[in-house]
Specification:
Elements: E1 14-15, H1 18-25, E2 35-39, H2 47-50, E3 56-61, H3 66-73, E4 81-83, H4 91-94, E5 101-105, H5 111-120, E6 127-133, H6 134-141, H7 151-157, E7 160-168, E8 173-174, E9 181-188, H8 198-210, H9 216-219, H10 242-257
Helix pairs in contact: 8-10
């Protein structure tokens, strides 16, 4: 492990606890696919437990030090070690439109982007689990009415059922992060499309939370059709769930057509 140094610019904090690594590996449900992609295996603390499972494991790694280390210590990966940036990978093309579960101990600085990437490729990713900075994990899993409920909560929960599983303390990492980590699991809902257009839905959600202390009547004013009224406009964005945001979007679409 000494040949791979944690790099600050990659947001690396290497997990050194086998107990937590196994616990994270066991978060996979594998109800829709046996193909699994691990993001950022690093030195393979999670990889070694994933390789004990009856799965077809691929790994995506961007760290040039980690890649030769993984090739030496995990020859089982053979040609399944993908060198590159997950955020730039065409998941559908890479796996020939097959379903693939995603897991990892995600770098803090790109973890929200990983969630949005999963949403983009939701038709191909039936589940995603792994470790995030606890604050972000809690935001993704937050319920309406919570102080941590926001844009990423709504957009994720529109397509995935989210469960916060457990917390991981800083002392089980090298180097120890200044914050705690949280492990969550996303399981795709039956429908991967919304009754309204996704671009409009995303725009309304982001615009609403842009001024979260104001009512939606005020925060959505710049994008609402002239004379638009709706029963939810008197509420603040954190008071609405996915279905309520969808209702607003459907009403906007209907008025625009009219």
């Amino acid at each position: 492990m000494a040949s791979v140094r944690p790099k600050k610019f990659l947001g690396q904090h290497f997990l050194k606890s086998d107990a937590y690594a196994k616990k994270i590996a066991d978060t996979l449900l594998l109800e829709h696919t046996r193909t699994v992609m691990e993001i950022g295996p690093g030195t393979g603390v999670l990889t070694k437990f994933l390789l004990t499972k009856d799965i077809d494991l691929y790994a995506v790694e961007i760290d040039r030090e980690s890649i030769p280390y993984l090739k030496i210590h995990f020859p089982e990966l053979k040609n399944k070690l993908i060198e590159g940036d997950f955020l730039k990978l065409p998941v559908d093309e890479l796996f020939e439109n097959k379903q693939v579960a995603v897991i990892g101990n995600y770098p803090y600085h790109i973890s929200s982007q990983i969630i949005f990437k999963a949403i983009e490729y939701r038709d191909y990713i039936p589940e995603l689990s792994g470790m995030f900075q606890r604050e972000l994990a809690q935001r993704i899993a937050a319920d309406p009415g919570s102080k941590t409920y926001g844009v990423i909560s709504v957009l994720t929960q529109a397509f995935y059922d989210v469960e916060y599983l457990f917390t991981v303390p800083p002392e089980v990492f090298t180097p120890p992060p200044k914050v705690k980590s949280g492990v969550i699991r996303l399981v795709r809902k039956q429908n991967t499309e919304l009754p309204c257009g996704y671009k409009l839905f995303r725009h309304v959600v982001k615009q609403g939370f842009n001024m979260r202390r104001k009512t939606l009547r005020n925060s959505l004013k710049p994008i609402l059709p002239p004379g638009f009224t709706h029963k939810y406009l008197s509420l603040r964005p954190e008071q609405l769930g996915v279905d309520e945001f969808v209702e607003i979007c459907l009403s906007i679409q209907q008025q625009r057509k009219a």
